[in-house]
Every structure is written in C-alpha cells, then in structure tokens.
Specification:
By secondary structure, this protein is α+β, with helices and mostly antiparallel strands. It has 2 domains: 274 residues, 2-Layer Sandwich (D-amino Acid Aminotransferase, Chain A, domain 1); 66 residues. Helices cover 35% and strands 21% of the residues. The protein contains 11 helices and 15 strands. The mean pLDDT is 90.
Length: 364
C-alpha cells in the first residue's frame, strides 16, 4: 500500500519539479537562515538554547548548493537585518529582470511573532516568499490560541489548559492525576521540554509551572499526554493542498515503547531521533491523518511546505499535537526523508517549494 501511494505522490512531485524548471530562468532566491554560533544570543534561554532551531554550516551549504544545482543563484544572509538593509539601500545583488523570492528559516530572538517578520516585509515590498504568510506564521507562535481555533474548526487535538506566568491558570486547570505535557506557548524544536515536563497533575504542579514559565519568560500550554505512534505529515500548500505520506518519528535511544516515548530538548539537540515509514499504522488511519493535515493547513492559511504532527490515540484516532509553518527541509528532517523515499534529493525538494510559491502567487 505504501509503495503504491509513494508512486502516486512521486508524480505530483515530478510535476512540481518540471513547473519550477520552466520558471527558474526568471527567478532568484535570497536565503535568510540563522546559523548556530559558539557564543549564545543575549536573549537565549539557560538550559534550553535556541540553537536547536538554527542551522550548522553543513546545513546552510546544503540549501545553497541545492539551489545552485537547480540553476538558481542564491544570495545568503545569516540574519534579517542584513537582508533588510541591502534591500532598502538597493544593494541586493538581484537582476531586476528576475522575480525575487525569499526563503527564511531558523529565526533569531524570542519574540513570539518573529517568524512573521520576513513574510510581512516581503508582502509590503511585493517580494515573493517561500514561507507561510505573515498571519499564519504569527498565529502559529501561540499554541493555545491555535488550540482554540482548532477546536472551533473541529480539528482534533489533546485537551489543553493555559498557564500564564505570574498569574496562574486562565480558566480551568487539569484534573488531579491527569498525565500532562507542559510546553512553552511560543517555542518549537522542543525548547523548554525535559524529563520533568511530563507529569501527573497535582498539588505541586503549579510551583513547577511558575518556576519554568519564569525561567523562559513566557506562558505555558499544558496538554493532555497522548500515548501512541507519532507521525509528521508534510503539506504542499498549492491552491489544492496536498498531503504527503506521513513519516513516523521515534527516539533512537528510546528505553520505552514508541507509543510512550516523546522527544525532549536533549533528543532534538543531539539529533537522537530517526524516521521510518508508518508500516504499523492502518491504511484508514493514514488517510485520516492526511485529510486532517490538509484541513489544518487550510484553516491556518499555510503557504510553501508546512508540517502537521500527530499522535495516534487508540481511543480517539489521530490528534494534532503540533503545527510547523516553516519546518526544516534539510537532510535530517522528516520532509527530506519522505522525498528521499520517492527517489528525490534536496534540490528537487526546493524545486517543489518554489513551485508552490509560483502556483500561489504568480502562476506560469
């Protein structure tokens, strides 16, 4: 079943690659990707560095070389300000006869709306973007607001509660004995998650949450923990959105069954995780996952290539646990894994990404 699905999806990717090839001569791309540094940023978190969201030198080279291999010159920037300054001064080395697109990833700082900065600037200046629109990037940085919208839209998610730093619970709190996972409201890449983040809710929980929220200077979403297989699903955000076959993710050094395991900060930092096809998941469930991923991307107005993460609950089926508007696309990512299983490499992945932008913004 998986083999036949991959063959069908391979045709979709091949069509996108051909579309990009027809338009490459008229396109240029500026990449803005934050690089991991030896020295930590001033606003970084103690014990949970934002470096897990950034790129090492080999990953930056992978993106730049992939773009060059498909015939696109890429002007690279390691921070937003350098890109903004070059554009405003008219010093961006881009031919005026070509359409400029910007790909941004690994955004610096701790402001919740930081991922919206580049798309908003691009929209203001009629520049194409390979990211989601500014609104989608902004709303994605507040997990509880996202949860409320998802609930209203009928998107299944684990039950969640909102803990505000300095104030306590906004609304109800989890029932005593509920097994919960406490996540920072505006972070990704497992920032703020360690072995203490999963616990049974009780009298001491408020003390832990206030301390952790104060350390990270942000509110927390406290989410019902869902045992079950974890799947990541890539969405090609074309006018008619398309979900690729989900990818199972698991910790390499897991000491627990897969359905009980989850990825904390150390697992992400040390790249202690691997990907696989969802062989043990029923075909009906896989189609539910794909349909839910498309519905979520549509409701939250995603662009480019986004990703919806779910866990498969035995009683309730697929539940959305996280949403990524601008996921990593380099080699050690579930999206890159899925492309490789169809016989593609990173250059074809970025061709497909460009084609989504052409379809959504400029046509051909």
């Amino acid at each position: 079943m998986i083999t036949s699905q991959l063959e069908n999806q391979k045709t979709v990717i091949e069509n996108l690659v051909r579309k990009a090839e027809r338009n490459i001569a008229s396109c240029e791309i500026a990449t803005v990707m934050q690089r991991r540094r030896v020295e930590l940023p001033q606003d970084d978190y103690s014990g949970f560095s934002l470096q897990t969201e950034y790129y090492n030198d080999l990953e930056v080279d992978e993106v730049i070389n992939s773009l060059r291999s498909i015939g696109i010159y890429s002007q690279h920037y390691f921070d937003e300000n350098s890109f903004f300054n070059d554009f405003i001064r008219g010093e961006l080395p881009i031919s005026p006869r070509r359409r400029l697109f910007v790909y941004a990833s690994g955004h610096p700082g701790t402001d919740r709306a930081r991922k919206a900065l580049i798309p908003l600037f691009c929209s203001l200046n009629s520049i194409g973007t390979l990211n989601s629109p500014a609104y989608a990037e902004a709303i994605n940085r507040h997990k509880y607001h996202q949860y409320l919208i998802a609930a209203e839209a009928g998107l299944p998610m684990p039950e969640s509660w909102y803990f505000r730093v300095g104030e306590g619970w906004l609304g109800e709190r989890p029932p005593p004995g509920e097994r919960v996972l406490a996540k920072p409201i505006g972070e990704c890449a497992s920032v703020g998650l360690d072995k203490n983040s999963l616990f049974e809710f009780g009298e001491a929980s408020d003390v832990f949450l206030e301390r952790r929220a104060s350390e990270l200077n942000q509110d927390f979403i406290v989410q019902e923990f869902v045992p079950g297989a974890e799947l990541e699903t890539a969405i090609l955000n074309l006018p008619d959105r398309f979900a690729l076959l989900p990818v199972a993710i698991r910790r390499k050094s897991a000491h627990r069954p897969d359905e009980e395991d989850w990825l904390d900060y150390q697992a992400i930092y040390n790249e202690d995780y691997s990907f696989a096809d969802p062989d043990g998941v029923e075909a009906q469930i896989i189609e539910q996952v794909r349909a839910l991923a498309v519905k979520a991307a549509r409701y939250f107005e995603h662009g480019g290539i986004s990703r919806i993460d779910m866990r498969i609950c035995r009683r309730r089926g697929p539940l959305i646990i996280d949403i990524s508007t601008t996921p990593h696309l380099v080699g050690h990512s579930s999206i890159n894994y899925r492309f490789r299983t169809m016989g593609f490499q990173t250059p074809e992945l970025f061709s497909a990404l460009l084609a989504t932008a052409l379809d959504n913004n400029y046509g051909s």
